[in-house]
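Note to self: keep these together.
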Amino acid sequence: MLESPHPLREKMTLFWHNHFATSDSKVQNAGRMFGQYELLYAHALGSFADMLQGMSKDPAMMVWLDTIQSKKGQANENYARELMELFSLGIGNYTEKDVREAARAFTGWEIRDEKWYVNSAQNDGAEKSFLGRTGKWKGEDIVNFCLDQPACPQFIIRKLLKFLVSDTLATPPELVAPLAEQFRASRFDFGKLVETVLRSNLFFSPDAYRGQVKSPVDFALGIVRGLELRVSTIALGMALENLGQNLFHPPSVKGWDGGQAWLNGQTLLFRQNLALALCSADGQYVRQPTPDTITNPILLLRRHRQANDEMAVDFLLGLFLQRDVPSETREKLLNYLKQSRRQQGPAYWSQDDRANHPTIALCHLVLTLPEYQLN
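Structure:
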């Protein structure tokens, strides 16, 4: 996400990682987890139908939801249930009988040489009745029948709107229906759907503006990119865990709740600490090619020749918040710099002391504003 030339594809890969939430805490195999990431990345802006078929046969998913334990006469229902409840249809659009019948179709699915394999001796080849259809259905048929349901495109679209537009967005049928029709007509071309949403009036509406709490990933990467930092990805990943989003370790098969669940007294404190560490070029996180005494907020202000209090405040507010904050907020930031000037003298803009330079604290203050916690 930090270095990719395709940030939208990475963002949508993260969306799918939360949709098909799989944790290495159970898989315990980095190769399989990376293979799942590659699958999600390959289809992130492609065919949802192909992704859903591929994910059904993904080794990490087969371990995560116990497909490999499902045998003829002892069908494990975990994947069949989540295929419908969380991956394609949503609660209320299938029955418990559908779960039982679908589970039989996935029996005998195993991993051999790190690839999906059907053990015919353990596969239930008898007739199954699923979503109103009866036949000797295979697992691939079950996935296709889920895709055929009107609830499927609507379910995916609602999740996408929450991810791209707003945590609290109302999704009435008149909003979802035309998108669902387009999604189905395109044979589940997710890239076209994302393009439609990103070009829509809804995406640019007042309801969407700062209508979403930033995830820890959005929060941290926004700072790193804004300050043009080179960071230790291992350290940053550990910091994200403290903020509540441990990548490749979602808390459950439902993924992260998101929204207001991202913020509480503890995670807000961790956000403040991480922001300060990144502003201060803390060696735990930042790999700094410039002298240690000169931090990136100072460098950016010098590079853009922002050499007085008002210019510095406006530059940082513009960099991180499009300068869209209440006038009272801007005045408080200016007053902070004026007080620093009185304490340190008029030459403080030329100082390189990383511990005391007011630019560090100013940048930290901007990043801890309520507005910066929102997209």
